[in-house]
Design goal:
The complex is a heterotrimer. Helix content of chain A is about 30%, strand content about 25%. Chain A is of the alpha+beta class. Chain A has a single domain (about 5-115), classed as SH3 type barrels (Roll), CATH 2.30.30. Chain A has a four-stranded mixed sheet, with no helix packed on it. A three-stranded antiparallel sheet of chain A has the order 3-4-5. The longest helix of chain A has 14 residues, at about 55-65. In chain A, about 35% of the residues are buried. By secondary structure, chain B is mostly helical. Chain B has a single domain (about 30-145), classed as Four Helix Bundle (Hemerythrin (Met), subunit A) (Up-down Bundle). Chain B is built from five helices and no strands. The longest helix of chain B has 30 residues, at about 30-60. Chain B starts with a helix and ends with a helix. Chain C is mostly helical. Chain C has one domain (about 35-425): Amino acid/polyamine transporter I (Up-down Bundle). Chain C has helices at about 20-40, 40-55, 60-85, 90-130, 135-150, 155-165, 170-180, 185-190, 200-215, 220-230, 240-265, 275-325, 335-355, 360-385, 390, 400-425. The two termini of chain C are about 25 Å apart. The relative contact order of chain C is 0.21. Classes of the chains: A alpha+beta, B mainly alpha, C mainly alpha. At the A-C interface, strand 2, helix 2 and helix 4 of A face helix 4 and helix 13 of C. Chain A: This is PRC-barrel domain-containing protein. Chain A: It comes from Micromonospora globispora. Chain B: Keywords: Signal.
Chain lengths: ~120, ~150, ~425
C-alpha cells in the first residue's frame, strides 16, 4: 500500500457507510524492529490545515482549534485497528458515534440548523 | 523572498493596474472613441425601437398579455435611458463628432418618447400610431449606423 | 445547462418479476424527459438567444460541439460514480492533493455560486414577465422558497416536476416552424461560420466561448455524480445513466437550438441584438400568440428554478466532499449541519449579488465567461480519474472515450485561455 496514493485524502466511512471525514493526515509509528507503520488516521480541519501549511493552512487549523471543546485536544485520531477494509473509501468497523464529534458540525448543529423547524425530518 | 517583499510587489502591481484603469476611464475620448460610443448608443436605441415595434404589433394582434407588454416596454425604456445617459456623458472631441451627436440625440429622445407612448396607449389607434413612429425612428437609426461603419 | 436529471431516474424499487420490464422502461423514460427539460438553464437561454439574434445560425456548430462534449464527460463521471460509488469531487481531492484541490474548490465554488445568482435572477425575470412586478421584488421571495424547497421537500419529485415542466420550451421548436423561416438563408449561415456584416471576429469568438461554456457548465457533473451516489448507483445502473445522457442531453440541446433558431428568424433580419428575457420570449408570442407566450414563460421559470436548485446543491456538495463532511439531500438537515449551512450561505450570497441591482442578464454573461475559465478545473480531473484502474477496474475509458476526452480537453483549455482576453478586447461582446 502506498500511503500517499491509497490512503491520504480518501473518504472515511463508518460501518453503516456514513461519512466520518477525510484521511487528512496519518500518524506513523515504529514497531520493535524499526519499520514504520500507520498507527492512526487523523481527520478534521486541524489535521488538514497543518498538512496544507502556509498562512492559509494555519488559518484553517486555527479556526478548527478554536471550535474544539478543548484547545489542546489535537486533531481527531482514529486508531488504524478500527479500519475494516480499504476500497475506494476507508471503511471502519465501528459506528461514527463512538468517535469524537467534529467540532464545526456540533457547533453549527447546536447554534443554527437544529433551531430551524424541520431539521429532524427526513425528506 | 520574504512575505513582505511579495506583498509589496503585489501591492505595486495592483496600484499600477488601478492607475492604468483610471487613466483609461478618465482620459478624454478621441474621435474614434467617440464614434464607438455613438454607434453603441445608436445600436441600443435601434434595438429598443425595433423591440417596441415587435411588441406593439403583437399587442395589436392580441398576441401578448398586458403584463408581458408592460415588462417588455420597461426593458426597452431602461435600455434607452442608459444609452441617453452614455451619450450625454461623452464629450464630442471635434466638429464632425458634434454633428454626428446632433443627428443621433433627437432620434434617441424620439425612441424614448415613442416607447412611452406605446406603453401608455389606451386604444389601438394610439398604439398603431406609436408603432408606426417607432418603426420610422428605427429605420433612421439604422441609416445612421449604416452611414458610419 | 443543467444536467439535471440524469440522476432523477426515479427510485424504481426492485419490482417482482413480470411487471419489472415495463416499470424500468417507464423509469428510464421519465429520466430522459427530465433530462431534456432540465438541460436548459439561464446560461443557455441567454447565450443562444444572443448568438441567434446577432449572428444567425453561424454558431450552430458551437452548440453541437458543446452538447457532444457534455455527453462525453457526463458519461465518464456517471461511470466513475456507478463503479466506484464515490462522487467526482472526492476523487478530485484524492488525485490532486489537498492544496490543488482547494484551489479547484475555490474556483468551482465561485463560478457555481455566481451561476446560482444568475438562475435566481432568471426566476425573478420570468416572474416579472408573468406579473409585471419588478424582478428585484421577487428575488428575496425566490431565495426563501428555494431554500425551503431544498430544506424540506422531496427532491426527486421536484426535480422531475421542474424537468418536465421545462419541456414546455418545446414551444420554441413549434414556433420555429410556424414562423416559416427562410431555411435557405439559415442553412447558409450555419454552413458558413463567421461574423456577418457589422460584426467582427472578436465578438464572434467571444460569443462562441460563452455558448460553449453554457453547454458545458461545470456544476452539472458535480451535481450529476453526487445524485448518483445518493441513489446508490452500481454498475447495473450504467445503462440508465447512459440512456439519459446520450438521449436526454442531445434532445435538450435541441431546445437550446430552437432558442437560437427562433432568435435568428425573428431578430437577425432586423439586425438587432437581444439583452432582455422579454425579447427572448417574443418569437413564441409572434408565432403562437398568448398561449405560446405563456408556455415560454412557464418554461423559463421551470428551467431556471430547477437549475437554481441544482447549483445551490452543487455548491454545498463540492465543499462537503472536499472536507469529507456528511452531505446529501436525503439526510435529515440535523445530520448534515455543515452541508446545510453551506447551502444556506450560497443562496444568501446569490441573492446578495442580485440585490446590488446588477442586471441578471449581464450577470449571466459574466458567469459564462468565468465558467469558461473554470472548465479545465472540472474536466481534467474527470479524465484522469476515468483512466484510473484503481477505481474503475476494467471499466476505464476505452480508446474512443479517451480520444474524445483529450480532444475536448484541448478545446476546453483553448476556451479557458481565450475567455478573459476576448472579454476585454470586445468589451463583453459590445464591440
Amino acid at each position: 500500500m502506498l500511503i500517499g496514493f491509497d490512503l491520504l485524502d480518501r473518504q472515511i466511512l463508518d460501518r453503516d457507510g456514513e461519512p466520518v471525514g477525510k484521511v487528512d493526515d496519518v500518524e506513523l509509528a515504529l514497531d520493535t524492529d524499526g519499520t514504520p507503520y500507520v498507527a492512526a488516521l487523523l481527520t478534521g480541519q486541524q489535521a488538514l490545515g497543518d498538512r496544507i501549511g502556509g498562512g492559509l493552512g494555519r488559518w484553517i487549523a486555527d479556526i478548527a482549534r478554536r471550535l474544539a471543546p478543548d484547545r489542546d485536544r489535537g486533531p481527531i485520531r482514529i486508531p488504524y485497528v478500527l479500519v475494516a477494509e480499504l476500497t475506494s473509501a476507508v471503511n471502519l468497523s465501528v459506528r461514527r458515534e463512538v468517535l469524537p464529534d467534529p467540532p464545526l458540525e456540533t457547533w453549527l448543529r447546536d447554534h443554527l440548523i437544529a433551531r430551524i423547524p424541520g431539521a429532524t425530518d427526513a425528506t | 523572498m520574504k512575505v513582505i517583499h511579495r506583498l509589496m510587489i503585489a501591492a505595486a502591481a495592483a496600484l499600477l493596474l488601478w492607475a492604468g484603469l483610471a487613466y483609461q476611464v478618465s482620459r478624454p475620448p478621441d474621435a474614434s472613441g467617440y464614434q464607438r460610443v455613438v454607434l453603441q448608443v445608436a445600436g441600443t436605441a435601434h434595438d429598443a425601437a425595433a423591440t417596441g415595434v415587435l411588441v406593439g404589433r403583437q399587442q395589436l394582434h392580441r398576441h401578448v398579455t398586458d403584463a408581458f407588454a408592460t415588462t417588455a416596454y420597461d426593458d426597452a425604456m431602461k435600455a434607452v435611458a442608459g444609452a441617453e445617459q452614455k451619450l450625454a456623458l461623452a464629450v464630442a472631441p471635434d466638429g464632425t463628432s458634434a454633428t454626428l451627436r446632433d443627428r443621433l440625440a433627437p432620434l434617441v429622445q424620439a425612441t424614448a418618447r415613442e416607447l412611452s407612448d406605446a406603453a401608455g396607449a389606451g386604444d389601438d389607434a394610439t398604439l398603431g400610431a406609436a408603432v408606426a413612429a417607432l418603426d420610422g425612428t428605427a429605420r433612421q437609426l439604422d441609416d445612421l449606423i449604416e452611414d458610419n461603419p | 445547462m443543467s444536467a439535471s436529471s440524469v440522476t432523477s431516474r426515479t427510485e424504481a424499487p426492485p419490482s417482482p418479476a413480470g411487471g419489472g420490464g415495463v416499470k424500468q422502461v417507464l423509469a428510464i423514460a421519465l429520466g430522459v424527459l427530465t433530462a431534456i427539460g432540465g438541460f436548459v438553464d439561464i446560461g443557455d437561454i441567454v447565450a443562444n438567444a444572443e448568438a441567434g439574434a446577432r449572428f444567425g445560425l453561424a454558431h450552430a456548430w458551437v452548440l453541437l460541439l458543446g452538447v457532444i462534449g457534455i455527453c462525453a464527460y457526463a458519461e465518464m463521471s456517471g461511470r466513475v460514480t456507478a463503479v466506484s460509488g464515490r462522487p467526482v469531487f472526492d476523487l478530485v481531492r484524492e488525485r490532486l492533493g489537498p492544496r490543488v484541490a482547494l484551489a479547484n474548490l475555490a474556483g468551482s465554488l465561485f463560478v457555481t455560486v455566481l451561476t446560482l445568482g444568475a438562475e435566481i435572477g432568471g426566476v425573478g425575470l420570468a416572474l416579472q414577465l408573468a406579473t409585471s412586478v419588478d424582478y428585484l421584488l421577487w428575488v428575496p421571495v425566490v431565495g426563501v422558497v428555494l431554500w425551503a424547497t431544498l430544506w424540506r421537500a422531496k427532491f426527486s419529485l421536484l426535480e422531475n416536476l421542474f424537468g418536465i415542466t421545462g419541456l414546455t420550451l418545446v414551444v420554441f421548436i413549434i414556433a420555429f416552424f410556424r414562423l416559416s423561416p427562410d431555411t435557405g438563408q439559415l442553412w447558409h449561415q450555419a454552413a458558413h461560420p463567421g461574423p456577418p456584416a457589422g460584426e467582427d471576429w472578436g465578438t464572434y469568438w467571444f460569443m462562441a466561448v460563452a455558448l460553449f461554456a453554457s453547454a458545458m457548465t461545470p456544476y452539472e457533473v458535480f451535481f450529476f455524480s453526487s445524485g448518483g451516489v445518493e441513489e446508490r448507483w452500481s454498475s447495473k445502473d450504467l445503462l440508465t445513466s447512459r440512456v439519459n445522457v446520450f438521449v436526454g442531453f442531445p434532445l435538450g440541446g435541441l431546445l437550446a437550438f430552437a432558442l437560437m433558431a427562433t432568435a435568428a428568424t425573428v431578430f437577425h433580419p432586423l439586425q438587432m441584438s437581444v439583452d432582455a428575457l422579454s425579447q427572448v420570449a417574443l418569437p413564441a408570442a409572434v408565432a403562437l400568440g398568448k398561449l405560446g407566450l405563456a408556455a415560454a414563460i412557464l418554461g423559463f421559470f421551470a428551467a431556471t428554478f430547477g437549475a437554481a436548485m441544482e447549483t445551490g446543491l452543487s455548491s454545498a456538495y463540492t465543499v462537503a466532499q472536499y472536507f469529507g463532511w456528511a452531505w446529501g439531500k436525503l439526510r435529515r438537515p440535523r445530520e448534515a449541519a455543515r452541508f446545510h449551512t453551506v447551502l444556506m450561505v450560497a443562496i444568501l450570497v446569490g441573492v446578495a449579488v442580485l440585490m446590488t441591482t446588477i442586471d441578471p442578464i449581464q450577470l449571466t454573461e459574466y458567469t459564462l465567461v468565468f465558467s469558461a475559465v473554470a472548465l479545465p478545473l472540472t474536466y481534467l480531473p474527470i479524465l484522469v480519474v476515468a483512466n484510473d484502474r484503481g477505481y474503475l477496474g476494467r471499466r476505464v475509458n476505452g480508446r474512443l472515450a479517451n480520444t474524445v476526452g483529450l480532444l475536448y480537453l484541448a478545446i476546453v483549455l483553448a476556451a479557458a485561455i481565450a475567455a478573459i482576453p476576448l472579454m476585454i478586447v470586445t468589451r463583453m461582446g459590445g464591440g
